[in-house]
Amino acid sequence: MEKSKLNDADKAYAKAVGAALKVEKDRTKLTFDDLAEISGVPRATVSRTLYGTGDSKISDIRRIAEALDVPLSKIWAAADKATGKK
Predict the structure, then answer these.
(1) How many angstroms separate the CA atoms of 73 and 8, rounded?
(2) Taking phi first (over 0 means left), then psi (-120 to 50 degrees means alpha), and beta for anything else, what does residue 29 get?
(3) DSSP state letter for 55
(4) Chain Cα centroid distance, residue 55
(5) Cα(62)–Cα(71) distance, rounded to whole angstroms?
(6) What is the mean pLDDT of residues 21-41?
(7) Cβ–Cβ contacts within 10 Å for residue 38, how many?
(8) Which of the four pLDDT bands, split at 50, 70 and 90, describes residue 85?
(9) Are 20 and 81 in contact (CB under 8 A)?
(10) pLDDT tens digits, residue range 35-69?
(11) What b/e string do you get for 47-60 counting C-beta neighbours within 10 Å, with b at 16 or more?
C-alpha cells in the first residue's frame, strides 16, 4: 500500500471531515455496513473516510454525505471550524 502523501494540514482536515461525517452517522444510527450499502462506497473506504485515515475522493465523501442526508456544505463548515479555517 502506498503511503499517504498528505501534509499535516491536509491530514488534520481529513480527520475533521471524517469526524463531521461520523457525527452524522451516529445521529442516524447507521452502521458502517449500512452506510456502505446505502452510499455504494466500499465499507473499508467508508471506515477510512470517517476515521480520516486516508486521502478520500470527493466523490466518496459526497456519496457518504448524501446517504446521511446531510449537505456537503455542513461537513465542510464543521471541518473548517474544527481546523480553525474561515
Answers:
(1) 23
(2) left
(3) -
(4) 10
(5) 8
(6) 97
(7) 17
(8) confident
(9) no
(10) 999 999 999 999 999 999 888 999 999 999 999 99
(11) bbbbebebebeeeb
